[in-house]
Amino acid sequence: MELVFDGHNDVLLRLWKNEGHGGDAVAEFIDGTAEGHIDGPRAKAGGLAGGLCAIYIPSEKGLILDEPDARGHYSTPLDAPRARAASLDIGMEMASIALRLDRAGAWRLCHSTGAIRAAMADGVFAAVLHMEGCEAIDADLKALDVFYAAGLRSLGPVWSRNNIFGHGVPFAFPMSPDSGPGLTEAGFRLVKACNELGILVDLAHITEKGFWDVAKTSNQPLIASHSNAHALTGVARNLTDRQLDAIKESKGLVGLNYAVIMLRADARDDAATPLADMVRHIDYLVDRVGIDCVALGSDFDGATVPTEIADSAGNQKLVAALMDAGYADADLKKICRENWLRVLASAWHE
Ligand SMILES: [Zn+2]
User: Fold this and answer.
1) Is 90 exceeded by the pLDDT of residue 64?
2) How far apart are CA 227 and CA 307, in angstroms?
3) CATH number of the domain that 263 lies in?
4) How many angstroms separate the alpha carbon of residue 226 from the centre of ligand 1?
5) Which of 91, 101, 143, 176 has minimal Cβ neighbours within 10 Å of its Cβ?
């Protein structure tokens, strides 16, 4: 089994929703459930040894993709902006779940790559707290200090909506990621503050202009935690060859997103998506950016994933498919965890 440290999941969102209905997040993670994709037992069974766990402020109505037209094209409008007070409440509730899981020993909240390696060696899920869209943070970045103290070590300035820091890309096919403006003045300050504090800046969900704004501002490698190749699946969320080249040049990383809408050539939300589509994206990314800059970013608990994977217990099926496609052990180690650990060490000033 090849242990995986994964670049993106929404398990905190799922646990938070269940707590809203009286559920116990800690018990659910420890005991396991049939719901969603990640819990302790299933992660262990699939060799999912850790990953970046997102605080994400959900859409008020939930994300519903527009119906595709006869050609399979769709263009879902950007989600409406979210107010800060409500977002801060939700952000703290999800951070609280992450802290309680840590206190109970259900997972270990890690602030260094040494801690990640130690947790993985101990067989404890190595969680890194990430924020996917910074609606919970104020323009003066005071909440950033508090979330940092709570363990936040990675953030994406925007999700697929606009906020005070920048602009997100819509869920649309086919569409270029050059879909709107980039960072705001507060967004530039946020990136610089992340550089200083040692918080990884994630480019998933940001417009192409925002991507270049971060590229010219940040002193970190360029990271897209859960994005695929636009050349293969032309959704606005995927990365163009020019963006991939910039990631390579910065010795950054792109994490394969298992979301079927970002894997399939037709971008349909259809779980009957072969593992071959995942391998095809990995092959393309490795060819474009090199074996040192490709990793995994499953989007477990945040997206429809291929039926053959099903949930985190099925994670090794992708590893086996990559092995069958000719990837050597040394390559798989890099894709499955070492590339993530390298860029985290860089962003965290280790
Ligand atoms: Zn996402």
Assistant:
1) no
2) 19
3) 3.20.20.140
4) 7
5) 176
